[in-house]
Write a structure and sequence with these properties.
mainly alpha, 5 helices, about 100 residues, Arc Repressor Mutant, subunit A
């Protein structure tokens, strides 16, 4: 909260600094997981973290969508035939020993 004796520009800078906070991916995950645990309400969690509830909901939705994509196999890389051949050769060599 801006102080009474601050200049107008300093007060605006202080408010802007507080509202433009950037959260790292780790912080977002931590906050979403705390909400999923349900130890406290979402509104109380958001107040404690200084975020709006709609921001929490967006992070939660984004993390669930990312998890769904990851688990559905959309990001699975197909092995190249040369990789497969190399792995087969190594497996056969180990079996012979």
């Amino acid at each position: 909260m801006p102080r009474k004796n601050q200049s107008g520009e300093a007060a605006v800078n202080e408010i802007t600094r507080r509202t433009c906070r950037k959260f790292s991916a780790e912080e977002k995950v931590r906050i979403v997981l705390e909400g999923l645990r349900g130890e406290q309400g979402i509104a109380a969690l958001c107040r404690g973290e200084g975020i709006a509830p709609n921001r929490y909901c967006r992070w939660s939705k984004d993390s669930l969508e990312a998890g769904k994509k990851r688990l559905s196999g959309d990001t699975v890389r197909e092995a190249k035939s040369s990789e497969v051949k190399g792995l087969r050769k190594r497996a056969f060599r180990k079996l012979r020993k």
